[in-house]
Amino acid sequence: MTSVAVVGAGPNGLAAAAVAARAGLSVDVYEANETIGGAARTQPLEGSSAKFDLGSAVHPMAMLSTAMHELNVHQRVDFIVPELSFAHVLDERTAYAWRDLERTGAELGAGDGQAYTRLLRPLVQRIEALSDTLLNPLLKMPAHPLTLGLFSASTLGGMALKDIFSARYPRAAALYAGCAAHVAGGARGPANAGAGLFLAAAAHGQGWAVPRGGSQAIADALAAEVISHGGTIHTGHKVSHVAELQAKTILLDTSAEDGAKLTSGKIPDKLAKKLAKTRRSPGSCLVHFVLNEPIPWKDPVLSQTSTVHLGGTAAQVGRAERAANRRTSEHPYLIVAQPSLFDDSRAPAGEQVIWAYCHVPLGSTADMSRQITAQIEAAAPGFSDLIKESHVVPASGLEQQNAALVGGDLSGGTMDLLGSVMRPRLSAEPWYLQSKGLYLVSAATPPGPSVHGMAGYLGAKAMLRREYSISS
C-alpha cells in the first residue's frame, strides 16, 4: 500500500507530493490529463508550432512562495523579471509600475505618485514578511503582526483610492484597480482590495516573473522534485472515487466540487454539501494569439513589460468587472501578456505569442475574441493585421481543459472576505476533510489562487503532522 496518493498534478498537487516524498513516504500522483501542470501547462494548440500557456502566464507569487523556494523550483527554473512589472493604459495616458517604486512614483507625477508610493512603500519594504503572512491561512497566528496591521490599514487606503479618490488620482488609482481586477467580479470589499494590494506590492518587491519555457517549467520542476525523492507520477489516469486508491492518506488537488464527489460517503455530509455548493466568481475567456511581429503599441514603453492592463480608469475597470457577473461586455477589462518578448522559446523566430483574457459570466460559452482584439487594436493600431493565429478558449472551455477551473473560474471559489476565511471551512487546518487520511490541497483551500504551490505545501505539512507525527 502506498503511503500517500495525490489526485491532480497541478502545482499544488505536485508541491504536496514533493513535501510527502521528501519526508520519506511512498507517493503516487494521479493526473487525468496526459500532461502534468493543471493551470500551469504550456503546450501547442491545434497543430500550432507555438507554445501557449493554457492557464497562468506571469507569476508574481512564484517569486514570493516558500514552497517554490524550498522545493527547488528556483534552482530549476529561469525566472525572467522585467524592470517594468506591468503597465495600465487609461486612454491616451499610460501608468507604469516599475520594479523601482520611487521611479514609479516620480513618473506618475506629484499627486498620483505621492498617493501611490505612500500606499505601497511600507508593504514593499516588508515584502518578505508580507508574503509570509498572506501566503498562509488567515486564521494562523501571524508571525509578523506589525506587517499584518500595516497591510490592514493599507487595504482601507487602497479601497479609498480605488473607489473614492480615483478622480483626484486617476493614474495611481488605475494602476491599483488593475491589480485588484485580477480577482474577478469587481467587489468593493477588503478581500478584493487586499489581493490587489499584494499584487501591486509584489510588482515593486520581487517583480512579476516570466518562466523561461512557459508555466510548464514550474510544473516540470516540481515533478522533478517528486521523482528525485522516489515518487511516481501517473498521467492519463482518472480517479472517480478515493476508494479506488490503495493509500493510507489521499490529498486532492481538485475543485471543491470534485472533492465532494471523490470522497462521497467518506466525509461528513455537512462538509460534502458545503464543498458541492462552493460559491464561484465569474469565468474567463482566454485568447491565444500568434503575431508576425510584436504588438505595435502606440506607447512604445509597453514593449518593456510582460503584462499590460487595458480597461480605462479605475471606475471603468470596476464597472466592467461588476458587469461580468451577469453579462459579457463590449469593453471588458483585459489582462494581456506578451511573454515571448522575454522568452524566445515560445514561438518560431520572428513570431510572438500573446495571451489575453477578460472576465465573463461563470460557465459562459461566449467567444470574446472580437472584443479583445478591438481593445488591443485601440491601444495598438495595426494589431489585427499582424495576427497569424488565434485560439479562443471560452470559460466553458477552460473547464474542459482543466476540471478544477469550474465554469472558467480561475480563483478556486469566490475570493471575497467570506470566501477567503471559509475556504472551504473555518479551521486552523482547513485542508483536512474531517475524515482520517483525506485532504483537499487545491486553490479551494488557503491561501487560495495563483501559482505558488502553497495550498499543496501547507496541506501536506498538516497531513504529515496529523497522520504521521512528522513536523518540519
TrEMBL record:
Subunit structure: Interacts with COX5B; this interaction may contribute to localize PYROXD2 to the inner face of the inner mitochondrial membrane.
Organism domain of life: Bacteria
Protein name in UniProt: Pyridine nucleotide-disulfide oxidoreductase domain-containing protein 2
Function field: Probable oxidoreductase that may play a role as regulator of mitochondrial function.
Pfam families, alphabetized: Amino_oxidase
Domain Amine oxidase: 13-254
SUPFAM superfamilies linked: FAD/NAD(P)-binding domain
Entry-linked InterPro entries: Amino_oxidase, FAD/NAD-bd_sf
